[in-house]
UniProtKB/TrEMBL annotation:
NCBIfam families: HAD-SF-IIB (TIGR01484), T6PP (TIGR00685). Its cofactor is a divalent metal cation. This is Trehalose 6-phosphate phosphatase. Belongs to the trehalose phosphatase family. Residues 71-92 are annotated as: Disordered. Its EC number is 3.1.3.12. Residues 71-85 have a biased composition (Low complexity). The keyword Isomerase does not apply.
């Protein structure tokens, strides 16, 4: 048996991550050739995974910097008419990160002889950003586009949300789902082609943090209830504290409330998203690791015959863009209307452009399949 693939289980002990299940049997659902991977084992040591990324303590300075960066991107600060300097900066940014629609041929050319694997973030990528996180629905047309993509390419949703929640929005059983920033991974429950039900995959490296996350969720609910508009969302292996509906004047106060709760939990850390602070375990696991895990489990460990495409709009998606850059494989595509520091290669402006891109990919695949059948 080779050590080629990582297959890690949702074992009760949480982090004893060695699994005796053949990779190909776990991931056969939406996978096409050449995805018949040999089974394999890899053990990731508990200590390596649990190595803290930083001390759990979040400094006041750091919190203030996050609040400042949220303010900088808030509509009250963005000037409606960009100055010439801004125009120039946006122009050079677009040269560095051109539109994935304009570069479509380059992308498909790079995929010659390779299997495209599609990774999609949810909020701000498949659904537009809205005020109420519980109402971030995906349009029917976007659902159809994703469904079509998954007919041709293994497709995963990689989200900061709780896996069940993101599944309830997407509702496509043929996809892979990596919820809680990749800390909760499940394979397709339905094969698109033969509708056969498969054994779901589970990988939950932060299992032992569940009681702590639950506790901190309750503490945050209590602590922030005095701040109008604040919303605390339980994402199972992480917690989000939303600033979007809070008066900007109270952002520092809300951030301070978060910090005061967090200082009791040195094993948890904070990251920042779009008007949200996210609390998660200090394990070395993020969306980038989830991407690698899925690629390896699909049989693409150390392979040249794969082209991963990852589309996302958030800071947390940068971990995945970085992995693709470091591998020198595939492309990160950032969804953004404004210039941002990013490791992505290309950009799309908004979810409607993401849908156009998915449509073009399906159309291109159909055309090339027809072309081949004529030869
Ligand atoms: O990784 P993602 O799928 O992008 O999830 C990241 C966070 O997305 C959600 O919050 C964001 O979208 C909300 C709905 O549009 C919006 O109200 C909020 O301001 C955004 O930050 C989700 O609610 C969070 O739990 C996720 O962590």
């Amino acid at each position: 048996m080779t050590k080629q693939n990582v297959v890690l289980s949702d074992v009760k002990s949480g982090l004893a991550i060695t699994v005796a299940v053949s990779n190909s049997s776990l991931f056969s659902a939406a996978v096409q050739k050449p995805l018949t991977a040999p089974g394999g084992y890899i053990t990731i040591s508990r200590s390596k995974l649990l190595k803290k990324l930083e001390t759990g303590g979040v400094t006041e300075g750091r919190i203030n910097a996050w609040v400042e960066s949220m303010r900088a991107s808030s509509p009250t600060r963005i000037r409606p008419t960009p100055s010439s300097t801004q125009n120039r900066d946006e122009g050079s940014w677009m040269l560095k990160h051109p539109s994935a629609l304009n570069m479509f041929e380059e992308i498909t050319n790079a995929s010659k002889g390779k299997q495209i694997v599609m990774f999609l973030d949810y909020d701000g990528t498949l659904s537009p950003i809205v005020e109420d996180p519980d109402r971030a629905f995906m349009s029917e047309s976007m659902r159809r586009a994703v469904k079509d993509v998954a007919k041709y390419f293994p497709t995963a949703i990689v989200s900061g949300r709780c896996r069940d929640k993101v599944y309830s929005f997407v509702r496509l059983a043929e996809l892979y789902y990596a919820g809680s920033h990749g800390m909760d991974i499940k394979g397709p429950t339905k094969s698109y082609r033969n509708k056969k039900r498969n054994q779901p995959v589970l990988f939950q490296p932060a299992n032992e943090f569940l009681p702590m996350i639950d506790e901190v969720y309750k503490a945050l609910l209590e602590k922030t209830k005095s701040t109008p508009g604040a919303k605390v969302e339980n994402n199972r292996f992480c917690v989000s504290v939303h600033f979007r509906c809070v008066d900007e004047k109270s952002w520092t106060e809300l951030a301070e409330q978060v910090r005061s709760v967090l200082k009791e939990y040195p094993k948890l850390r904070l990251t920042q998203g779009r008007k949200v602070l996210e609390i998660r375990p200090t394990i070395k696991w993020d969306k980038g690791k989830a991407l690698e895990f899925l690629l390896e489990s699909l049989g693409f460990a150390n392979c040249n015959n794969v082209l991963p495409l990852y589309i996302g709009d958030d800071r947390t998606d940068e971990d995945a863009f970085k992995v693709l850059r470091n591998r020198g494989q595939g492309f990160g595509i950032l969804v953004s209307k404004v210039a941002k520091e990013t490791k992505a290669s290309y950009t799309l402006q908004e979810p409607s452009e993401v849908m156009d891109f998915l449509h073009r990919l399906v159309e291109w695949k159909r055309m090339s399949a027809r072309g081949h059948s004529r030869v």
